[in-house]
Amino acid sequence: DRLSPGSRGLLVKLARAWGSSRFEQYARQVSQALLKQVDDESLAAEKRLEAARQLVAFRPRDEEVVRHLLDRISPQSAPELAEGIVRALQPSESSQVGTLMTQRFRGLTPRTRAAGIAVLLARPTSTRSLLDAIDNGTIPLAHVSAYSARQLRELGDADIERRLERHWGRVRRSSQDKRAQMAKYRSLLTDRKSTRLNSSHSS
Question: Which pLDDT tens digit goes with each residue over 126-160?
Fold first, then answer.
């Protein structure tokens, strides 16, 4: 009982990985303790956000964790806390992150919406939820920048690229993107040339 909620969460997670169910009874207690920290207004914002991050790490596939954390965000929430809670959801492996985030989108402040878009763009599954929300008008197209659209193109997902073209037309790389790509290729060519020279000298 002297362990912090985060440490107890790690202990339960390890026990599960080892195939033990002895510590399962503590799992709900750990989650509740972490949520209590998130709710504790006497704690500094970073302490509360660390509890949110620990909870997501502890239960990465749990849809209820996503719901509980989003329930704690309102227009009256401190901007730093609201944005931090949304960003804490980015590592979540729940298949419902995208759906739940888009459902709550209209109730978020502009700053928190920007964080929500970043979370939705983090993986193909939630990106599809974002594109669904754009299709049905839940999220205005203007909330997704052309830069983000170009990033999505790099995922190499044919379905996502087809849907991008529906909204933005054919997404082309910017001059900056092209310069970065050329610099990458030049670096690779330089490294290969250096490797060949070193090999010839050593022989």
Answer: 999 999 999 999 999 888 888 888 878 777 788 88
- For residue 157, what pLDDT is reported? 84
148 CB contacts (<8 Å, ≥6 apart)? 117, 121
Spatial contact of 94 and 63, defined as CB atoms under 8 Å apart: yes
In angstroms, how far is the first alpha carbon of the chain from the final one? Answer: 64
In whole angstroms, what is the distance from residue 180 CA to residue 128 CA? 27
What is the rounded distance in angstroms from the CA atom of residue 148 to the CA atom of residue 160?
Answer: 13
Q: What is the pTM of this model?
A: 0.72
CA–CA gap between residue 2 and residue 23 (Å, rounded):
15
Q: How far apart are CA 119 and CA 85, in angstroms?
A: 11
Under 8 Å between Cβ of 51 and 38:
yes
CB of 106 closer than 8 Å to CB of 74: no
d(CA 78, CA 44): 12
Residues in the chain with pLDDT values less than 70: 1-26, 170-203
